[in-house]
Amino acid sequence: MSESPVPSFDMGHRLMLGVLVSGRGSNLQAIMEAVEDGRLSARVAVVMSNKKEAPALELARKRGIPTLFLNPSDYPDRSGYDEVMIQTLKMYGVEVVVLAGYMRLVTPMLVQTYPNRIINIHPSLLPAFPGLQAQSQAIAYGAKVSGCTVHFVDEEVDHGPIIAQTAVPVLEGDSEASLTDRILAEEHRLLPRVLQLYAEGRVNVDGRKVLIL
Ligand code: GRF
Q1: Residues with catalytic annotation?
Q2: Candidates 3.40.718.10, 3.40.50.170, 3.40.50.1450, 3.40.50.300; correct CATH number of 14-114?
C-alpha cells in the first residue's frame, strides 16, 4: 500500500463523493440520507454503475444526482473502462470514491489514481470471508460473530487497510437473509460515519494500519 497521506480538509469542506454501484443501493441511500440530515459533510457528485437496471441509479436520479451507466461490453478491457470512469470522476471533482455494492474488480490504474481515496464496504469482518456471499460463508463456516468492514481499496480484493468494523452475532437458525439484514443495518450506520471521519481529516493511514485521530 502506498504511503499517500490522506488529505486534510478545511472546516466546512464538503467532501465530493463519487459512488460506484451495481445493485440495490441501500448503502448509497444511507449516504444520501446522512448528507441530507447534516450528519455527513459531503456531496454525492456522481453515481456510476456497471449495471443498467441497478435500482441504485434510480435512487440517485430521484434526488437529482447525476448518474452514469457504463456498459462493460462497450470497452475492450478493464483499463479502457476504468479510464472513462476516472475521466468522469475527475470531471465531477470527486475526492473520494465509494464502492457501495460495486460488483466489479477495479484496475490498479484506478487504485493508483485515488490512493487511500477509494473506500469499500464489505459484509464480513475482514480478513474473514472475503469475496462473494460473505454472509453465507460465515454461516457455512459456523462463525459465531460476523459483521461489516469499511476499508481502503488496494490492488487485491477485499484487502486494503481496515478503517472500521462493526460486529454482529450469528444466531442459531440464521438464514442468509436474516444475517444479511442484521449486517446491513450496521453497514448503513458505519459507512456514513466513516465518511464523516474522513471529511473531518481524522483518518490517517500508516501502512496497513489506519489511525482515527
Ligand atoms: C452490501 O452488503 C455491501 O456490503 C456489499 O454489497 C452490498 C450492497 O448492498 N459490498 P446495497 O446495494 O448497498 O444495498
Answers
A1: 122
A2: 3.40.50.170
User: What is the CA(9)–ligand 1 centre distance, in A?
Assistant: 28
DSSP per residue, 93-147: T-SEEEESS--SPPPHHHHHHSTT-EEEEESS-TTSS-SS-HHHHHHHHT-SEEE
Whether the pTM exceeds 0.90: the reply is yes
Q: Tens digits of per-residue pLDDT, 44-87? A: 999 999 999 999 999 999 999 999 999 999 999 999 999 999 99
User: Which segments of 44-97 does DSSP mark as H helices, in order?
Assistant: 55-62, 78-91
Residues facing 69 on adjacent strands: 49
Bridge partners (DSSP) of residue 20 are 48, 99
Residue 9: helix, strand or coil by DSSP? coil
Query: What spacing in Å lies between the alpha carbon of 121 and ligand 1's midpoint?
Result: 7
Q: Whose CA is nearest to atom 1 of ligand 1?
A: 101
Q: How many CB atoms lie within 10 A of CB 147?
A: 24
Four-CA torsion 126, 103, 163, 148, nearest 10 degrees = -50
Which of 99, 184, 189, 194 gets mutated to test ligand 1 (max ligand atoms within 8 A of its CB)?
184
